[in-house]
Model the fold of this input.
Amino acid sequence: MSKNLTTRAEDYSKWYNELVVKADLAENSGVRGCMVIKPYGYAIWEKMQGELDRMFKETGHTNAYFPLFVPKSMFEAEETNAEGFAKECAIVTHYRLTNDPDHKGKLIVDPEAKLEEELIVRPTSEAIIWSTYKGWVQSYRDLPLLINQWANVVRWEMRTRLFLRTAEFLWQEGHTAHASKAEAIEESEKMMNVYADFVQNFMAIPVVKGLKTESERFAGADETYCIEALMQDGKALQAGTSHFLGQNFAKAFDVKFTSKEGKLEHVWGTSWGVSTRLMGALVMTHSDDNGLVLPPNLAPIQVVIVPIYKNEEQFDAISEEVNKLVVSLRKLNISVKFDNRDTHKPGFKFAEWELKGVPVRLAIGPKDLENGTYEVARRDTLTKELVTKEGIESYIQDLLDTIQKDLFTRAVDYRALHITEVNTFDEFKDVLENKGGFISAHWDGTAETEEKIKDLTKATIRCIPLNRVEEAGSCVFTGLPSKGRVLFAKAY
Done:
């Protein structure tokens, strides 16, 4: 099969778009700004979803589901949140179509079917969930309330890109209520750490944990914790956020509880989420000019076996050997595919599975059968070696672990080379234009300076790292005093 991918060096954006489509992850749909996630792409998302769901449940959360539609008055109840999402809202105003009297077979909106109150198609679910929590919480015995939902949301984006920014996307959103401020902050930090654990250990992507600045904070939150990742083109990608909501939504929706001391108090809230944009991060962190490179922990197919034969007799003998190996690998919980299609030649299959990022490829022909060997190819390094069939199961198991670790190490090394400390604005602009990556610089802490730097360079403060060293310095832009360095970057 011919890949014909634009190279990353030629046009990174075009390479990404082509790869997502050609690797059968997703495609644009007939609906403006919306995508179709194809079976192979959805299989990766299911693995992400399954692992995250397990992690959420291990930390005490349970799943529920809330409506897609939010009455406008309910959406407006928490003003900051409503204003923050207002420009991205899709709104339902009518509930029926009728025949167009002037054009047979055409339908028009029935003017008689106007809704009494317009409905917002959820861009996020705080409003509908907190209005529900009012009826669920009366006493301290009802707390903490730890709920997650797997859902879709709609944000009317004007410029879209598969997985990274679409009008509708899939995500999970956790919404919790607590008896104290300290508990809610602890929850916000805990979920940020759950995300970091998942992204680093399953996606093999290193992240920086930090806090958003006030202007980058989630609308309606007192604090936003985030994990920031770095893509191969030197741009940052926000991989997950966890918000300490204070009592903002509790007060907006009058969610109160009677404390142990008998006092009536507002609860403290959090919300947190990751979305299918993680699929974009996965593609951009590891993949190369030959196609996808998937970490074994998230690959739908971890091992593919391709037979090489000239006649039916050879095929039958190879199949008998391979089927035994398939059974052995599956017992070790390794997902394996025996590509025994007779409609495509081995070269086509090699190219196809390379494009789709399968971590390990085995090939076996008559000579291998005779010698008791398999040709084993690694997708990440594109290297091959002959391995004897005795003990090949444990060899493959160890190889998958090695690939997972090597991908993470490679991404860590790349990021280490692309975190640059600067002390002047000229240095800042030079690194941004000629090197990219995270720029570690002093900032005077004002929204005005943050906005001016963004206007001049398109770089934003990605986060205030949680592990930053408090040190006196001078703002890279204004020269005013600074308490420590923050990370700037251009971002997706």
Summary: The two ends are 31 Å apart (CA to CA). The mean pLDDT is 97. The CA atoms of residues 166 and 182 lie 36 Å apart. The longest strand covers residues 168-178.
